[in-house]
Amino acid sequence: MDNLATGVPVQIHLETNILQNGERSNFVFDATGQLVRVGTSIYIRYQEETDDGSVPVTIKLMENGDVKLTRSAGNRLQLIFSAGKRIAARYATPYGQLEVQTVTSSLDMEILNQPLRGKVGIDYLLYAGSDLLGKYNIRLQFTI
Fold it and tell me: Which DSSP symbol is given to 144?
């Protein structure tokens, strides 16, 4: 499809499971976003509705299998997931920068064509220094 370079509508189904301090949370999100192919990467952009308003989110699926998640709000967060690796990130809050790290225990990605669609599964731990902030599971499905 020639229009992937300029962007096409994409249907998104996202589930996030969180385990923090012994408590489980589950969030399910369905939205229409935009999918753009830039070089060998696929970008999925959408607006996540929260109690504080709309938050722009970008998920970058890279050819090497890594995934970058960016949430651009008052608290800007950019996380990179790479299977088996611990990767440092900064969480920009109104109160300053918080250093965090992701440890990705599992990362599965399947992208199919005609129609372009895919599934991404990410299991990771989020740390601030040596303190475990939580255990996260993200399941993303998308189709144009």
Answer: -
For the chain, 144 residues long, give each residue's pLDDT as a single digit of tens: 456 778 899 999 999 999 999 999 999 999 999 999 999 999 999 998 877 788 899 999 999 999 999 998 777 889 999 999 999 998 877 778 888 999 999 999 999 988 889 999 999 999 998 999 999 999 999 999
Q: Are 90 and 70 in contact (CB under 8 A)?
A: no
Amino acid letter at 71? R
Q: Which two tokens stand for residue 28?
A: 């399910």
3-class secondary structure per residue, 48-73: EEECCEEEEEEEEECCCCCEEEEECC
Torsion sign (Cα): 85, 36, 119, 14: positive
For 103-128, give one letter per residue: b (16+ CB within 10 A) or e.
bbeebebeeeeeebbbebebbbbbbe
- 43: nearest Cα among 71, 26, 62: 62
Rounded distance, CA 139 to CA 56, Å?
Answer: 18
